[in-house]
Amino acid sequence: MKYSLQFRLSAWLSVMVLLAAAVAGVASFCASFHEANELQDWQLEQVAAMMTPHVLAEMERDGIVGKRMETVHHKPELVVQRLDASGGTLALPASLPDGVQDVKVAGVDWRLVVRTLDAGTRVAVGQQTAGRNDVAESSALAATAPLIVFVPVLVLVLGYVVRHMFAPLRALSAHVDGRDSRDLSSLSDAGLPDEIRPFVVALNRLLDRVEQSVAAQRRFIADAAHELRSPLTALSLQAERLEPLTLATPAHERVLALRRGLARGSALVEQLLNFARVQDAPDTADQRLSVAQQCRAVLEDLMPLADRKRIDIGVVALDEGEVLARPLDLRMLVRNLVDNAIRYTPEGGRIDLAVRAGEDRVELSVADSGPGIAPAERERVFDAFYRIVGNEAIGSGLGLAIVRTIVERIGARIELDDVEPSGLRVTVMLPRAR
């Protein structure tokens, strides 16, 4: 089951932040609510402390005592009333003790401060509890609001920080994904967190082992090809010496078959050596090379092979355009494309070669009138030693594998297309040298 470590870490951190914010919000709300009520109690006590017989008498003359008075914020209303008075807003018993207390009057909760003045007069200052609670809730919400706004911002910041922390991993992944398939050099652990460095070290060890294994395979192929070259050459010379002799027809046919078999073996050994060469690390620097010049040289070498099969090789275009590559790579690229076309084109067929230079690339195209390659086979033909079933042409199955290796090395691109009515066009798009 796939899952995202970054998403999980962000989710868990967000959940913990939300839980912490919820606890902090509830605690802040309760504390602010309690403080707001204490402040309102203190205000009631201050109003009660201001009450003197003289002030009380003036308020009675103004008709304020026993009536609801609006506060600065209009809520909750304040009531000042004698305890022994009748007809006031509150029907309060005279037996209430001095101090702050809660009283229910006519089913309504009130918060009162009762005080006895110097003349023995008792006065009560009160507010409805519901109004006080509304004020306390508003104050508590105002104190909690910044936290409510801050939490989403904190979650977004956490997500950004977590993503930023995983940036080295994404960069490492992009670097590995963009590497050439033949590049098995060690990965750099610079800038990576300590938790990731052991993984990179282990990966580098694996790359080293893979590189050693691949190098051993390449050495084996090259050594085997070298070891086979000398015996095959000797056998070919011996077979050539038999040709002038007067032999019976069956024996002569067997000698010819032997020579054809030795020729195939020699061609395979040569291709194995070429395959080993192109897979090795470059031992020379890239040079500015003319694709058209390489094509001319290859055509001169392979023209006798085409003449033996009466194949017409036409040069459609031969633009001058330079690319950066090793001379051996570019020569082998062109040679294998033309050689393959000659091998798979029937006698009396046609091959068209074209080199077209554009602003940023040089296109090399080789089209033949052979049987072509089915679309389902076009990816597999680049595998080493793969041969299409039913194709009787002599070949090693390494030509296009060599071509693809060179194409990947020099940063080119290769495409296979049909040619009407029958045939195959191989187009290689090479980056043009600046």
UniProtKB/TrEMBL annotation:
Q: What is its EC number?
A: 2.7.13.3
What Pfam families does UniProt report for this protein, alphabetically?
Answer: HATPase_c, HisKA
Q: What class of enzyme is it?
A: transferase
> Which lineage do the record's taxonomy fields give for this organism?
Bacteria, Pseudomonadati, Pseudomonadota, Betaproteobacteria, Burkholderiales
What the entry lists under CDD domains is as follows: HATPase, HisKA
Lineage: superkingdom: Bacteria
What reaction does this catalyse? ATP + protein L-histidine = ADP + protein N-phospho-L-histidine
Which SUPFAM superfamilies does the entry link to? ATPase domain of HSP90 chaperone/DNA topoisomerase II/histidine kinase, Homodimeric domain of signal transducing histidine kinase
Which parts of the sequence belong to the Histidine kinase domain?
Answer: 223-434
Could you tell me which residue ranges the HAMP domain spans?
A: 163-215
Report if keyword Transmembrane is assigned. Answer: yes
Transmembrane intervals:
12-34, 140-162
Write out the GO MF terms.
Answer: ATP binding; phosphorelay sensor kinase activity
**The species this protein was found in:** Burkholderia gladioli (Pseudomonas marginata)
Per UniProt, the keywords (alphabetical) are: ATP-binding, Kinase, Membrane, Nucleotide-binding, Phosphoprotein, Transferase, Transmembrane, Transmembrane helix, Two-component regulatory system
Q: Which GO terms describe its cellular component?
A: plasma membrane
According to Swiss-Prot or TrEMBL, what is its membrane topology? Multi-pass membrane protein
Task: Name the chain's protein.
Answer: histidine kinase
- Where is this protein found? Membrane
